[in-house]
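Technical annex B. To support the medicinal chemistry partners, we prepared a structural model of the target in complex with nicotinamide-adenine-dinucleotide, based solely on the information shown next.
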Amino acid sequence: MPTDLPTGRPDDLPGEIRHWIGGELLDSADGRTFAVCDPVSNSPYATAAAGGPEDVDRAVAAGRAAFPAWSKLGTRERARILYRIADGVEAREERLAALETFDSGLPITQARGQARRAAENFRYFADVIVGLGEEAFRVGDEQINYVVRTPIGVAGLITPWNTPFMLESWKLAPALASGCTLVLKPAEWTPLSAGLWPEILEGAGLPAGVVNIVHGIGEEAGQALVDHPQVPLISFTGSTDTGKHIVRSSAAHLKTTSMELGGKSPVVLFADADLDAALDSVVFGVFSLNGERCTAGSRVLVERPVYEEFTRRLAERAERVRVGPPADPTTQVGALVHPEHYTRVLDYVETGQREAKLLAGGSRPAHLPEGNYLQPTVFADVPRDARIFQEEIFGPVVAVAPFDDEAEAVELANATEYGLAAYVWTSDLKRGHRVAHAVESGMVWINSHNVRDLRTPFGGVKSSGLGREGGAHSIDFYTESKIVHVML
Ligand code: NAD
C-alpha cells in the first residue's frame, strides 16, 4: 500500500495464535495451523492453531472437569468474577480496538466502543443471576411445586468475524453467569482479539477449564464441537446456510440450539417522518461497521412523495463517507474483512448495476489502490425480485425502492426470506405500531435505531434465526428447568 497511509499494525502482534484449553495455551494435537491475514495488506501476519476433533475433545474434557465446581459456585461469587472480567475488558479498550481494527478492518473510532459494550454484557448478566429467583406454584394447601434451574453443562459457542470480541462476550457472559463451562470457537478470519480472553479471564480469577478456546476452520473445529456428544448446547451466530447445517448436525444428539443468523432488514420510511433523522439513521445503519452488521437496514422502502428527495440526499451522503485505512481516526468505512468476502460484495455490486439504478459508489475509491475497500454504494428503483433486494450482502451497499401506501410497504418489507430487524420512520405513532406489528422480524425500532437494551429478547424469525437470547431468555437457554412436586 502507499507508504503515507497508516498501517495500523499494533505493537507486539503475536506471530502464533494458540488454543486455550484447561488454562494452557496449546498447539493443535496434530500441529496443523492456518494463516491469518489483515484486510489491508491481505498478507499473513500470524498463524493460528487449526483445531480438529482431538483438540475439541481435550477442550470438552477440560470443560467437564471444571463444571462441578463452577456450576455449584454461589451466584454472588460468580457475579463477582463476572464484574472483574468486565473491568479487565474495559481496561484493555485501546488494545482491543487496535487489534480489532487491524484484524477485521473496522474503523478505529467504531472499534473503540466495543470494549464498553462487551464489558456491559458481563455486568448485566452478573446482575441478572444474582437477582434471579426460582418459581414456586402452590396448589391449594396440599401441594407445592417448585422449579430447580441447573446449568446445562459444557456449552459450545460459535461466533462470526464481525465485531468478533463483542459477539464472543455476548455468549460468554450469560453462559458463565448461568454456571455453564464452555468451549468457544472464534471465527477463523478474525481470531486475534480472542487472544485477550486468557489474560482477562485468568486475571479475574476464573478457574482453569471453565472457558476453553479452540481456533480453527468452521468445517473442522466448529463441526467437531457441533458433533461432540458431550456438548449439549450450541449457541451460534453466523450465516443462515451455516446455521441450517448446524441445526441438521445437532439433531443427531438433540442439542439445544440458538441460531442468530443473517438479515436483510427493511427501513420503512413514510413521507411524514423526520427526514433528516431518518437519513442519519439510514447512513449509520448500513454504512457503520463497514456495513458488516447483522441488523443493517440494507433495504430502504420510501413513500413516493419523498422518494426523489431521499434518494438524492442519501446518494450525496454516501459519496461523502470517508473510506480509508481502518486505523485512521478520520475513517468512517474501513476495509472489508477478507478478500473472499470483498469479492462477494463486489459481485453483488456488479449484479446490482444490471438490476437497478446505481446512484453512488459502486467501486473502489481511487486513493486506495490496495486493500478490501469499497465506496458506500446506493442503488435506487430496486425491484423486489432483484438479488440485491433479496440477498444479504453484508457490506456498505443499500437497496432503495419506492412504495405507494402502507399495505405495499408492509408487503415489500416482508418480501424476503429474512426477518431479523426492521425500522419504521413516521410521525404517526399509531401507524408506527401497526407497521411494527405487521412486519415479520424479531426486532423493530420505531423512529430510532441501535438502542440495545440487554434485558430484551434478541433474535430473528424466518431465515434469520431460531430462539432468542438476551435477558432472561439467555438464562433459560443455558439452563435446564426441573419441576419438583411436593405434597405438604
Ligand atoms: P459463517 O456462518 O461463515 O461463520 C460463522 C462461524 O461458524 C465461524 O466461526 C465459522 O468458522 C463457523 N462455521 C462454519 N462452518 C461451520 C460448521 N460446519 N460447523 C460449525 N461451525 C461452522 O458466518 P460469518 O461469515 O462468519 O458471519 C457473517 C454472518 O453472520 C452474516 O450472515 C451475519 O448476518 C451473521 N450475523 C448474525 C448476527 C445475529 O445476531 N443475527 C450477528 C452477527 C452476524
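Notes passed to the chemistry partners:
The chain has 16 helices and 21 strands.
The chain has a mean pLDDT of 97.
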